[in-house]
Amino acid sequence: MTSPPSLRRPRSRQRPGGARPGRPGGRRRRSPRNRLLLVWGLLLLGVVGLGSKLAQLQLVKGSELKALAEEQQQIYSVPRAARRSMVDRSGDVLAVDRVVYTLYVHPLLFQQSPAAVATTLADLTEQPEAELVDQFAQQDTGIKLMNDVPEALAKRIRQARLDGIELIPSQKRFYPQQALLSQLVG
Length: 186
Fold this sequence. Notes:
The protein contains 6 helices and 4 strands. By secondary structure, the chain is α+β, with helices and mostly antiparallel strands. A hairpin with a 5-residue loop joins strand 1 and strand 2. It is 41% helix and 17% strand. 6% of the residues are buried. It has a domain of 100 residues: Penicillin-binding protein 2a (Domain 2). Strands 1, 2, 3 and 4 form a 4-stranded antiparallel β-sheet that branches.
């Protein structure tokens, strides 16, 4: 059984010169190999361009960009002005600021064994040595051991010359009469 003439696909006829009917100007299709080479060439050109830009940034402008990055990453903090002491009319001190320290430990930077550092710090801070060793094992850096370390103790810790120990100073209000006038003074 043959299909009606409207549903049949017309046969393509070859024209002289090998051109197919329906193509304007009788052009031939480009071969996939030419397209592949064109795409490969464009990708190669892009990689060479990116490589040259990378070389320019790293080799030519590297030191300049590094200095700019370090400048942007630095944090400039404005030091707080120390508050003045408060005295009553007879000259007794009601409130005064004192420098206190926060003690941080960085076990990653220890030059001695953590047990030796724990022994030295246990003698200075009156904390159990086993507890200090356990804290050192928890993480590599940034372990806060103590808040409000007095200046005399901070001086003794500095004199021990232990690597991986950091004392960060801060101001704290001190009331010599304890809670007597602290609510009034603020």
